[in-house]
Amino acid sequence: MQIVRDLFGLFGIIEFVYGRVRNILVPPRAYSWQTLIYLSIFSWLMSSLSEPPIKSIIAFLGWVFLIAGTSWYTTDQPLLIPGTNMPVGSVITGFLVSVFAFGHEQDVLTTRTIVLWPTIAAIITAVPEFFEGSGIDVKSQLPKAEVRQRIIVLVACSLILSCWIQLYFTVDKWVRQYPSIQADDVSRSTFVIRTEPQAKLPENGALILNRLQPRVEEQLTARVWSEVERWLIEAPQRVNNLGKDVIQTLSKQSGKKVDTFQPEVIEEWELWNVDARVNNKKGGGYQLDLLTVWNGPSSSYKRYFLRKSCQIDPVSVAANSATVNIQKPGEKILVAEIQCEPTPKFFAGSPPAKQ
Question: pTM of the entire structure?
């Protein structure tokens, strides 16, 4: 007998669930929110089978039916967000309206969609307070003072939330366009919190130096010492020209889409300046400092720069026709030997003055 009772209980649960699902899916009358949802599904189906411009018109009607049906359903069964007077239905409807207004086929969720979502939801919550009645018997009204106060607070808070979301996307855009600011110190900022470890070096500044080093070595290695000294006299201008070529190459390589929210390419390359400093060494030879100086945004009025030092020394070798143009092969001559640091070093402040 217990098994029979359990079976009847199971059938009762199934019947209850079936009744709830049937009440949701089957419209009680033609004029209902279910009808609008079904019309939106039907419109999208027809839109997928159509061609422009009819496709866009049918898709537009599908969005209208979806927004109206969702708003109707959530209004009939309101559920407030805890601690506020904003219904959950307004949040859902606001999201649909934001996607419909600011999204597109390639990227449904855009920056503008997310930023304006809270404000649109607040407006949707506030609009019904200015009307009374239902159906076609609707009249405009001025809400009571306490209701107006709630509306003002709700809309103002939503605007502030939208502003904070926009600030997040703005800072994220700065970081994507100018990655080197990740090495900056934002510990004293009142509105920016670092969620990742601070970069030890500005990545792009170090990349420029690493690409520049082989070009400098190519121009100096195994060259006659007198030619090297003449080269070093014009080192700042020569290194600057080589640096411009490196930056131009890197700029072309970085012109790629980042993601859905931030399709901008890196724009900081033009804010890097390449320079050089030459110093005499005790005992002969020179120290060539390759510099990349940051001229972009910074949390401090002081600039910062990266340095990679190269030691250039004269070495006596037997000349041969494969290295230099000489008259007597085997003659001892002085050529340059260059050795650079493996990694750049980071310095806060302006670079040293030219001597």
Answer: 0.62
